[in-house]
Amino acid sequence: VSATRSHLESEIREQPDAIARVLDENGDRIAKFARARRAGGPGCVMVAARGSSDNAARYAQYLLGERLGLPVALAAPSLESLHRARAVPRGEGDLVIGISQSGRSPDVVGVLDAARDAGTPTVAITNDGDSPLARVADDVIELGVGVERAVAATKTYTASLAVLAVLVAELRADHGDRGEVQRIPSLIGQVVQSSFAAVDGLLECASASHVVAVARGYNLATAMEIALKIRELTATVAEGFSSADLLHGPIAAVTTGTLAVVVAARGKARASVLETADALRDRGAHSVVIGEGPSADLPLPLDVPEWLSPLVAVVPGQILAMRLAELAGRDIDAPAGLTKVTETY
Amino acid sequence: VSATRSHLESEIREQPDAIARVLDENGDRIAKFARARRAGGPGCVMVAARGSSDNAARYAQYLLGERLGLPVALAAPSLESLHRARAVPRGEGDLVIGISQSGRSPDVVGVLDAARDAGTPTVAITNDGDSPLARVADDVIELGVGVERAVAATKTYTASLAVLAVLVAELRADHGDRGEVQRIPSLIGQVVQSSFAAVDGLLECASASHVVAVARGYNLATAMEIALKIRELTATVAEGFSSADLLHGPIAAVTTGTLAVVVAARGKARASVLETADALRDRGAHSVVIGEGPSADLPLPLDVPEWLSPLVAVVPGQILAMRLAELAGRDIDAPAGLTKVTETY
User: How high is the ipTM of this complex?
Assistant: First the structure.
């Protein structure tokens, strides 16, 4: 390890090991939790989260929706902290999940507190088992990836996604799913290597005054998380979009000064996302494609299942955001104005 | 009516009459629907929508959450159209609402279709009672505000919000709520007048290269809708934020080239939103405040109840967006690249 390596770079590079540890250390606990839940039957799920964890919540929405057919509500920001609305699911089989690496976001704690009062089962996914969120929840799944020193979240983000993926594999009790999840650390290891090798060839895009990251379906979470990383680390206006929404109107604000980060992982969303990439290039945007195969600017490993692709496809975006920030001479580990906990009181 | 007045301006000015008609013509139908629903008990609500209607859905999330304690899931874009996930609520007392002025957004129709198959009651809020959305729904509430000729939605947006407000007043069977709803057309009439009178004094902000619209709680929907109008009509990068989220990180991208539209309506969110306005000004942003009282740049009528304020507070933003587009010499009624129906197949 270089003495001058930033915490951010170390934490990005740690991800294969961190995720392997999540799978090893949490597998049994999640399996046990899932066995108890399976008896509960299908209901509504609410997920409360903020910041990067809110993008993990968006992954949960697609994951629980597509793999299990469950409707997922993302808790509205401030509805508990400002209005004390107690607007949580309270039916048979319902579940409330809080995701917060610090476990100290008052909005997220407030939603779980309301659920506990309503008698709805709660589970906390957090990197701090002593946090207020952990204390209020019926069940706690600790990420256990060690302290995250950089303010911008990376390993806690992918670890939260890994916990969700294991949870769904266990809820489905699907042997194939379980096997696919075990491949994730190796896939992330490959993409860390290939992204660092490729990123320095792309840095003509460093002059962009505006960034859009686009995807659809599962990787909408990835596009939003990559946009958030670029925004946090470089202070550039960076937005994540569903390609379907972007084409409907917002693309009008895309110009030759726009960098378009296109997440075209394998699967049902790919064709529609690549079509959007063409439309972005037609408007003069500089595009960087994260996708399978050698034609991509930041290549993904072959044969990543679509439902797990957000764990892999976000990594090239983390590395691109970091390099752009380095080129701009920013403080990588503690960007101006960025705080680790979203306080909303 | 001026022969050269745009459809957009006519439709903005029509809103007091249009909303009065919504209340007159839909009141009984909504009351009947609500009486049938009240017996069903509390459950989960899913709302499916796209574009401007998605901002109406966000209002529904706060409205049903704060007034009725109901958890509301906003349907994930593409989960039905891309993955055929059928991820809809299917418990006792659950409800699925589709909002689409055209009634032809395939994503929205797909969610209601899935709900019908699951046996979950559905209601469509649409401006076209013959649309695919109306045909698939168990109940239909037609806006009845006449054809919207401008591509950017204005009167169909406020009419959708009015339907939701009446629905909640009826579900609560609250006499006070019903009385407050009846004041909306007059309040919108006042704000149309005061906004047109004030807007031309604000047009130094026309040179902004970036717009953020901020609010919190109920008016998060308003901030997002104002940002969408400015983006659609002027092709400027315009983003809506919860003030809590903005302060946590994204504010780093705010500079002297940023126009900040601050929605500081009366109520619990006001103090926190005004604090954010200070932080935006500290970063050199040019701010336009929509708020109660004479100190606001675009004043709101006095004593608008917080739960109804999104119907009133969006109007100054519509008018600001229109004037900015006129100054930029844009096609007001059919902006380049904008389409009326979000097609996602």
Answer: 0.95
